[in-house]
Amino acid sequence: MAESEIPVAAGPNLGIPTAIAAAVIAWLIPGGGHLYLKRWQRGVAFFVLIAVSVFLGLKLEGHLYRPVPGEPLATLGTIGQAGVGTVYGVLRFVTHYEGDLRGPGFEYGTAFLLTAGLMNLLLVFDAWDIAVGKKD
Amino acid sequence: MMISHFLLMVVFALIVSVFFSLLWRRERGAQLRLFFQLFLGMVLGGLALAWLMYPFPQGPPAPIP
Hints:
Oligomer: heterodimer
Radius of gyration of chain B: 16 Å
Order of helices and strands of chain B: HH
Structural class of chain A: mainly alpha
Mean pLDDT of chain B: 90
Number of strands of chain A: 0
Radius of gyration of chain A: 16 Å
Helix content of chain B: over 70%
Structural class of chain B: mainly alpha
Number of strands of chain B: 0
Order of helices and strands of chain A: HHHHHH
Mean pLDDT of chain A: 90
């Protein structure tokens, strides 16, 4: 990839406390970190994308991972899906959602839920980079 | 519920492509270029992979626990 294609344009360094706040908000609310940093359009777009992904994952009755002793892949899946922040907490601890293994869309739904979490984890890092001035 | 594997693949590719084009690019033209590269790469790559796997035997259906 040509170096000129990589977005290296940096913004102002807003300081570590702001970066921490942006990262935490980004984790708790998909797109929230970008909204906090006044990247309105991107924040809303990311929120919609992750919301659609979670909605499809739930509609398809995908699996919500939780740690299982002796199963490292379940732990990895949990970390990935927990990346979606508040949504994961609500699904797991409030609604006690698990998914339905017999559902025809189980595997697809699991992929959508995992993807939503992983995308939001990337947004956490992106919000951090914007706040410390590495990206615009 | 009827599930179209192809449609789900297209929707998945759409979501991921839009996400990364917004995350990695800032200019509209560059975003569109990356979107089409990712989207077509995933959809056409998936179809190519499916075509390559077509001769393989399917095997018995997985048991439902």
